[in-house]
Design a protein that fits this description.
- The structure is a single chain.
- The chain starts with 7 loop residues before the first strand and ends with a strand.
- By secondary structure, it is of the alpha/beta class.
- It has one domain: Rossmann fold, CATH 3.40.50.2020.
- The strands form two sheets. It has a seven-stranded mixed sheet with strand order 5-6-4-3-7-8-9, sandwiched between helices. A two-stranded antiparallel sheet has the order 1-2.
- Helices cover about 25% and strands about 35% of the residues.
- Helix 2 packs across helix 3.
């Protein structure tokens, strides 16, 4: 199945000059979405994760079904103040400022293996921060997997784990 045919390009979103690759149309097509998750599960399974880490918010849509198929836990990586209870946090630099990622305390066991997932790899900043946060919790990050990679932004070079993607765009 040609999964790219289910991705919609939206020009000038979220600002002029940006071409946004929208997975909304992929999610809306049951057979295409199933194929996406099954292909990603095949890529991730050899890493034998104990859990899938999903980055807010589309990473949740990818990560939860992957965790279910692989029979492992799913852990949310969220922006500051979005998770109940005690959290472990990491501040990281953005192009114009700073942000914070958090994971709930106690949801990952020290020494466990995880795979980080999200819908899109662009500049790699958020993914690199999520990997650093997991390591701060003494967790081994075995790999990172994405539905889409914008190769022209070079995000892969910021990640020091094996990276797999289903679709790539060079512009």
């Amino acid at each position: 199945m040609d999964l790219k045919s289910h991705i919609r390009g939206i020009p000038d979103f979220p600002k002029p000059g940006i071409l946004f690759y929208d997975i909304g149309t992929l999610l809306a097509n049951g057979p295409a979405w199933r194929e996406t998750i099954e292909r990603m599960a095949e890529q991730i399974a050899p890493h034998a994760p104990d859990a899938i880490l999903g980055v807010e918010s589309r990473g949740f849509l990818v990560g939860a079904p992957l965790a279910a198929i692989l029979g492992v836990g799913f852990v949310m990586v969220r922006k500051k103040g979005k998770l109940p209870g005690k959290t472990v946090s990491l501040n990281y630099a953005l192009e114009y400022g700073e942000d914070t990622l958090e994971i709930q305390e106690g949801v990952l066991q020290e020494g466990s293996r995880v795979v980080l997932v999200d819908d899109l790899l662009a500049t790699g900043g958020t993914a690199a921060a999520a990997i650093q946060l997991a390591r701060q919790m003494r967790v081994s990050v075995a790999a990172a997997a994405f539905v889409i990679e914008l190769t022209f932004l070079g995000g892969r070079s910021k990640l020091d784990v094996p990276v797999s993607t289903l679709l790539s765009y060079n512009e």
